Amino acid sequence: MEALARGFSVFLYDSLLYGQDHSKILREIRSKKKNGATCQFVIGDTRDINLLEKSLVDFKPDFLFHLAELVGIYICDDNPAYTKEINFEASKKVIDLGEKLNIPIIYNSTSSVYGNQKKKIILDEHTPLPEPTDNYCKYKLEMEKYINIKKKTNSNFKVIVLRLATVYGLSPRMRLELLPNHFTYCAISKGTIKISEPKAFRAQIDVDDVVESYFAIMEKNQWPRLLYNVGHYNLQKIQVANIIQSIVDCKIELVNHLGDIRNLQIDSSTFYRDFDWKPKYSFEETIRETSKWIKSNLSDIENYNFAGIINTPLDQWLKMI
């Protein structure tokens, strides 16, 4: 939406895997366009490389953002073969196509590849990585390796890989299972935030800051490095819950079962320096906005069984909340 608001024309290519109401989303997105910007949409799958190539040739984009993968540990581990097909085999073809058509590519990896860090350290792009324990991280790392090889064999190929922190906040297709959004939903709907591993850290970044980081990338003629961490806050899970509790009247309950084992803090200073950019959105303010949205939409969210707003299988999501 922000790209249209700034006068950029946008082409969207999406399979609508999660059953989202694309007409409603498109109306919301297009309502922001200015200065003659256009928004085109094709319902397509990255495995249909011929349709994707035709679409890109017709639109002639200046940049290609590859965000079309299964996202999240639970959905990827529940569908290992499908995950490999989408997040690795199809993603390789998207990267190949960008190289073939000479389109600069921004590829979203994840800070989750840093895994469960036993020591309280800040992780940069040179930190040795643990073996992945889930299919989501496994194929993100495989794609990082693939892109690295492509870049080494073709130095003219313009591509950047972003290890994003957990992204939270409001978006046209909300994701409620992301930690801050998840905790905020539980606080409002259940009156209680249940936490395992309360002292575990997570790197966090507002979705609007991610968008701003994309503009910083597009405005830079040269991308100095291939790989960057991109995050803002490093917060313990209990800190996240305490902030939410200061905004939403709720209880915090510590539970003993082993939940998501990730524990990580990331250093994003290299990205800040190379792109002369820093995140600016307040965690507290976004939680306030998110809580207002959840309160306004709570009955629809639950009556429609969270359709289109969670990537996690519903039975697992219900156990989590």
UniProtKB/TrEMBL annotation:
CDD domains reported for this sequence: SDR_e
UniProt domain NAD-dependent epimerase/dehydratase: residue ranges: 31-231
One Pfam family cited in the UniProt record for this chain: Epimerase
PANTHER family: BIFUNCTIONAL POLYMYXIN RESISTANCE PROTEIN ARNA (PTHR43245), NAD(P)-BINDING DOMAIN-CONTAINING PROTEIN (PTHR43245:SF23)
Name of the protein this chain belongs to: NAD-dependent epimerase/dehydratase domain-containing protein
Organism: Candidatus Nomurabacteria bacterium RIFCSPHIGHO2_12_FULL_37_29
